[in-house]
Recover the amino acids of this structure.
């Protein structure tokens, strides 16, 4: 499990500034489910760029929205109505 967690954190860290990825995108890269990706990021203590990972529809979880929106805006990624435009800002992993 530790190797998988490390892989998830490395994949999240590989998302370039100004881009986002989804939990599902990262899950495909590392070979697990999107819920595990979310759990690992939630328990990472902020050790990676968690704000660049959003839901499949581009939304951000309500408890994370304010901080993630601020961090994303600083990278040039607008968040409108709690959502990132996935088609425009999705990273290729």
């Amino acid at each position: 499990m530790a190797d998988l967690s490390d892989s998830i954190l490395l994949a999240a860290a590989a998302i370039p500034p100004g881009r986002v990825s989804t939990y599902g995108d990262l899950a495909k890269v590392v070979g697990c489910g999107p819920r595990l990706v979310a759990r690992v990021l939630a328990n990472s203590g902020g050790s990676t760029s968690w704000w660049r990972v959003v839901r499949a529809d581009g939304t951000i979880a309500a408890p994370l929205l304010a901080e993630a929106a601020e961090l994303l805006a600083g990278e040039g990624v607008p968040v409108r109505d709690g959502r990132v435009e996935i088609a425009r800002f999705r990273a290729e992993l």
